[in-house]
Amino acid sequence: MTRLTVNDRPVHFLMDADTPLIHALRDAANLTGAKFGCGNGDCGACTVIVDGQAIRSCLVSLGEVEGRFVTTIEALSGDRSHPLQQAMVAEGAVQCGFCTPGMVMAGAALLARNPRANRDEIAQSIPNICACGAGPRILRAIERAGRAIRSRERLDALPVPGLDPAEAALDVPAIEPEPAPVESEE
């Protein structure tokens, strides 16, 4: 059993300690914001924050994060008020959305350490791949979020069309996987 804190909640995963964190989060905890992309750490779609650092959750096992604090996109801000989430919408930086959670988490970790990051620092810290070509808008969104953080300004971007903000902000609790049913011998 692996114990860690996920989105500020203690979680006990009843899974093999060698299980990649991405699979524990998605399959056992039903936290599907982080996406499984390449499986070898290149695309960044699986990026989460562990103890304040952006990490590729496909490259780290449950055993490696035991006792640590993991934050997924679901807990960055329940009402989507984090400056980077607001800036992503304001800059039109979301296209297909597959890479978006990883980009947001990598950007949020960077801005928490350095809200004054310049374009080169951002590009070096956010090597995630966006196949849609939204990369330049994503970089602008991270810069804009940094400015908002420094000035304590709330961006209040419009909600995504067709998405009720109240539903998007639902708090999804992390859960333990259910034990496999035992067949009776009758």
UniProtKB/TrEMBL annotation:
Keywords: 2Fe-2S, Iron, Iron-sulfur, Metal-binding, Oxidoreductase
Keyword Transmembrane helix appears in the UniProt entry: no
One Pfam family per UniProt: Fer2_2
Entry GO MF terms: 2 iron, 2 sulfur cluster binding; metal ion binding; oxidoreductase activity
The keyword Metal-binding is assigned to this record: yes
CDD domains, A to Z: fer2
Matches recorded under PANTHER family: BLR6218 PROTEIN, OXIDOREDUCTASE WITH IRON-SULFUR SUBUNIT
Protein name: Isoquinoline 1-oxidoreductase
